């Protein structure tokens, strides 16, 4: 691979410095996160311990190396879209999801000290589907009720 400066590239191609990445919707962000987790479905990731027992201020600062959130933060696309760090609070803000959904996806009480990346991906994909189709769960419950 040959590396070139912006000036060198400008001689052979149009270089636009005003280029901006397209904003991702909350659902697109969630699907992206799920896809990243699905890349190594058998990879063990660290869960967060006791998210449901912490005050909001403590919970928002919780993080762990090699967590499902750190997988998202390692992605340049999600960082460019505005993901600032790999804390619980930042994931909640950036992905626009509830404490309940985030707790279900990565808390120790559901999975123990680690979670398979593929399992975390299914949980995040479920959040994306529910976000994309509000009322879906209610309609499904109604259809299954006799």
Q: In brief, what are we looking at here?
A:
With 146 residues, this protein is mainly α.
Polypeptide structure, described:
By secondary structure, the chain is mainly α. The chain has one domain (23-132). It contains ten helices and two strands. The protein has helices spanning 6-12, 26-38, 56-61, 68-73, 76-80, 88-95, 99-106, 108-111, 117-132, 136-144, and strands spanning 44-46, 114-116. The protein has a two-stranded antiparallel ribbon. It is globular, with a radius of gyration of 19 Å. The N and C termini lie far apart (64 Å). The model has no long low-confidence stretch (mean pLDDT 87).
Topology (SSEs and partners):
Layout: H1 6-12, H2 26-38, E1 44-46, H3 56-61, H4 68-73, H5 76-80, H6 88-95, H7 99-106, H8 108-111, E2 114-116, H9 117-132, H10 136-144
Antiparallel strand pairs: 1-2
Helix pairs in contact: 2-9, 7-9
Enumerate how many helices there are, as a single number: 10
Read across the widest sheet, the strand sequence of neighbours is 1-2
Structural class: mainly alpha
Measured distance between first and last alpha carbons: 64 Å
**Large-scale geometry:** globular
How many domains? The number is 1
Strand fraction: under 5%
The helix-strand sequence is HHEHHHHHHEHH
List keywords for this structure.
single chain; globular; 2 strands; two-stranded antiparallel sheet; 4% strand; 10 helices; 146 residues; mainly alpha
